[in-house]
Amino acid sequence: MGALAHELAREYPGLRVTVFDFQEAIERVACFQPTGRPTEQVSFVPGDFLKDRLPEADLYVVSGVLQGWPDDKAHELLSRISGSCHPGGGVLLVEVALDEDAREARPGLRRALYRLLHSQGPERGPGHYRRLLERHGFADVRVAHTRDVLDVVLASRVVL
């Protein structure tokens, strides 16, 4: 949670990052602080992203959330993000995106399969994420497989 926010702030010095998560997660934020001085670029706001108003943002990052959720909850969250995201803004999903055409196991696949077996959400590949995002007004969906368990899916909010 906070580690990604701090890494983005370090990489892009003009960027302001808001981490919106449950109160319990925000209380543990010190565990995710990088060593060295704290940055004013990163702020932490407690809330429930299915109930509370989402903070305004140009890019919403959803990390490790959707893979454990059934489609109805994923649609609910993406609908809320879509309603808060300005046209031209975007969403970045950091999730397990199983390669639908894979012939070989990727590094970290065992860990991903264990997590999938112990979650309520369906296995999702890039096509599934693309359909979820397009249904909520996002386009130009791009998937990048990493060399680890999590992949990234980036999409832009359609300009009306």
Overview of the molecule:
This protein is of the alpha/beta class and 160 residues long. Helices cover 30% and strands 22% of the residues. The chain has 5 helices and 6 strands. The chain has helices at residues 2-11, 23-27, 71-84, 109-117, 126-135, and strands spanning 17-21, 42-46, 59-63, 90-95, 138-144, 151-157. The chain has a 4-stranded mixed β-sheet with strand order 3-4-6-5, with helices on one face. The protein has a two-stranded parallel sheet with strand order 1-2. Strand 5 (138-144) and strand 6 (151-157) form a beta hairpin.
Structure keywords:
alpha/beta; 4-stranded mixed β-sheet; two-stranded parallel ribbon; 5 helices; 160 residues
Principal-axis shape: globular
Regions with pLDDT < 50 over 5+ consecutive residues?
Answer: none
Report Rg. Answer: 16 Å
Judged by helices, strands and strand pairing, the structural class is: alpha/beta
Number of helices: 5
What is the percent of helical residues? 25-40%
- The first-to-last residue Cα distance is 31 Å
Mean pLDDT: 81
Strand percentage = 15-25%
**Overall strand count:** 6
